[in-house]
Design goal:
Layout lengths: L2 E5 L2 E4 L4 E8 L5 E9 L6 E7 L4 E3 L7 E6 L4 E6 L8 E9 L3 E4 L3 E6 L1
Parallel strand pairs: 2-11
Antiparallel strand pairs: 1-3, 3-8, 4-5, 4-9, 5-6, 7-8, 9-10, 9-11
Length: about 120
């Protein structure tokens, strides 16, 4: 059974930083990529950042230069370092893992709130 455990959300003032973590238990499956998505009220879920097992990264234009995604392959854990946070970064952040031959899975979500 695949399980994702997220942590690190919270309330921060604009300009502050937060670090999100997501640990994946994937059993016998191989992880192809891990990433973070977010969904603000009334908006669609959108990609924030993703990283492959080989270390290739992809970022939304809105977070480039402020957010950094990293990964510990041995622990199947992905991190999202968020700096210079803005009120528009407020959303529920979801961890995603894509498995070889087994599809994609989502975490339960963690709230990030940035006050102005």
């Amino acid at each position: 059974q695949v399980q994702l455990v997220e942590s690190g959300g919270g309330l921060v003032q604009a300009g502050g930083s937060l670090r999100l973590s997501c640990a994946a238990s994937v059993g016998i499956f191989r992880v192809k990529s891990m990433g973070w998505y977010r969904q603000a009220p009334g908006k669609q879920r959108e990609l924030v950042a993703a990283i492959t097992s080989g270390g290739n990264t992809n970022y939304a234009d809105s977070v480039k230069g402020r957010f950094t995604i990293s990964r510990d392959n041995a622990k199947n854990t992905v991190y999202l370092q968020m700096n210079s946070l803005k009120p528009e970064d407020t959303a529920v952040y979801y961890c995603n893992v894509e498995l070889q031959w087994a599809g994609g899975y989502w975490g339960q979500g963690t709230q990030v709130t940035v006050s102005s």
